[in-house]
Amino acid sequence: MRRWLTRPGLVLLAVATAVAAITSGSHAATRHEATYAYGSATRQGIDAYWYDSSTPLPALLILHGGYFNSGSKTDWASTARYFADHGFAVFSADYRYNTDAAWPGPRDDALAAVAWIKTHAGDFDADPAHVAVLGSQAGGHLATSLATYGAGRDHVDAAVGLSPINSPYRAWTQAPTTSATATRRKIRDETVILNRCYPDSADTDCWNRWTDSVAKTHASGADDAPLYLVHSSGDPIPAAHSTDLRDAETAKGANPADITVDVTSGSSSGGPLLTTTLKNAIVIWLKARTHTTTPPPQDTGNPPPQDTPTPRTTARPITTAPYKDDPVPPPPADENPLRSAAVTVTTGTYSYGTDPKQQLDAYYIPGTKQPALVIIHGGYWYEDDKSSWVATSQWYAERGYAVFSINYRLNAQTGWTAQRTDALNAIAWVKAHATQFSTDPNRVLLLGSSAGGQIATAVGTYGTGTKYVRGVVALSPVASPYRAYTDGQKSGASTSKQKLRDNSTLLARCYPTKTDTTCWNRWTDAVVKNHASTSDAPMYLLHSQGDFVPSTHSSDLCTALKAKSVSCTLTVVTGSGHASAILKVDGIHTKILNWLQAHD
């Protein structure tokens, strides 16, 4: 029995097959095929295709495409066999999708796959010192990332990219509106999910992630691996992705002969570019750059497990945190003044779940049973914090409410429906601890702002909405993330609308298309009016005339609720304030308070 079937530490996931084939030489030989794991994640699998050889063969890693969120190593089986038949030990790898891991997770997977190949090279008669990579589209992006990350030659000898998306940022900028093709818009949306944010240079962490994902950012000239990059003239991933990378490498001192950018006729992209002529050319190009000289190393074992953070669960003083949405203005001192002596509000921070984001700030007056008001902050589902609502929470607590200002998991961490689930769990926690906060568990209301308004209205229409809350107030609620998406890709859309578009995409974790049922169902579920029923909570919805979240979000929702005989009031104030900025309108706090008191 061959050593690759028996060596400790080499995990075989599928029964190996042996296939009689004709190599590029003249004699019949046996091609072996088997599937292994190079990591612990579901998608960290690798298919091997190789022949017995008395001399080590150059290794070739193939990375599939698929918009960063689809595709499979098995799609490339015939191509893998072709290169195995032409003198390579071939490894076709899956990697985590952008929905599984943000950037640089997919690059980390590609690096791990290369390390696995080098560690186990001897089991496949491969040369660990000579590994090349071939990738298509999103996989091409990973291929050029391997070739340029750090000293690229330390990872691979050479990289082939078929329509590589070398710059996710370029892909984002080239599809701003519906004038771009659906393919380009889908790539745009998937790069947002890959980087977990709208590309904003003022958002340092976000911008660094986008910058890091652009291959030319890492260009270092002679230290990087040679590149063979192919596009078609009508490619939805234009050759500028690769000419930019070529120019960056040569500017750093790379030998121009080491970087080829080939533009073919037609409009093929990715795998369909692989004609017989191109495959033969790639074989010749790769063999010129992968010479076998080094014996295989021994198995070095698995990397240590990562530490898992322990969430905080004890009560703590309320703290502040930076936020990027419109600052919440404090209620005017002369609006609805207290009619009795000053009261002392007790405050504290508590955890309603195990995730660090599942926390709430409580503001209450002990001893008097009072209704509860749960406040859900905005911030594109991406940013902001419960602490921005301190003054407003204090104001409502002084006027007879036990107030709970909550955080929730943001869209960069997890997609819809986690945000609604967190709000429901926070409400359940408040009800379960009603005695502790002198609260009536049957008198809970919601106040949500912008993205938090979408969450609040989604709770009010979830199943039997009145089971959870007695009423919902929402400021500029993004009641239809899909409407926000379509508005944000119209010609002339403002930066705020584009940011909301991208964060709606990040919330849904996919490009909205009816052909992808799972994706479409998630978009549909996030649209609040789709859940309207006779048992929903009454709502009071507010926008401004120039709101970048237009009042049509709420008028559509009110129409759906009224059709089910549920009370819904829409108020449109003057100006162009958004969400918490509406609270600057004279008397608006009193109007909200009056509505809450009428429904608690």
From TrEMBL:
<feature type="signal peptide">
    <location>
        <begin position="1"/>
        <end position="28"/>
    </location>
</feature>
<dbReference type="InterPro" id="IPR049492">
    <property type="entry name" value="BD-FAE-like_dom"/>
</dbReference>
<keyword id="KW-0732">Signal</keyword>
<dbReference type="InterPro" id="IPR050300">
    <property type="entry name" value="GDXG_lipolytic_enzyme"/>
</dbReference>
<dbReference type="InterPro" id="IPR029058">
    <property type="entry name" value="AB_hydrolase_fold"/>
</dbReference>
<protein>
    <recommendedName>
        <fullName>BD-FAE-like domain-containing protein</fullName>
    </recommendedName>
</protein>
<feature type="domain" description="BD-FAE-like">
    <location>
        <begin position="368"/>
        <end position="559"/>
    </location>
</feature>
<keyword id="KW-0378">Hydrolase</keyword>
<dbReference type="GO" id="GO:0016787">
    <property type="term" value="F:hydrolase activity"/>
</dbReference>
<dbReference type="Pfam" id="PF20434">
    <property type="entry name" value="BD-FAE"/>
</dbReference>
<feature type="compositionally biased region" description="Low complexity">
    <location>
        <begin position="309"/>
        <end position="322"/>
    </location>
</feature>
<feature type="compositionally biased region" description="Pro residues">
    <location>
        <begin position="294"/>
        <end position="308"/>
    </location>
</feature>
<feature type="domain" description="BD-FAE-like">
    <location>
        <begin position="53"/>
        <end position="150"/>
    </location>
</feature>
<feature type="region of interest" description="Disordered">
    <location>
        <begin position="291"/>
        <end position="338"/>
    </location>
</feature>
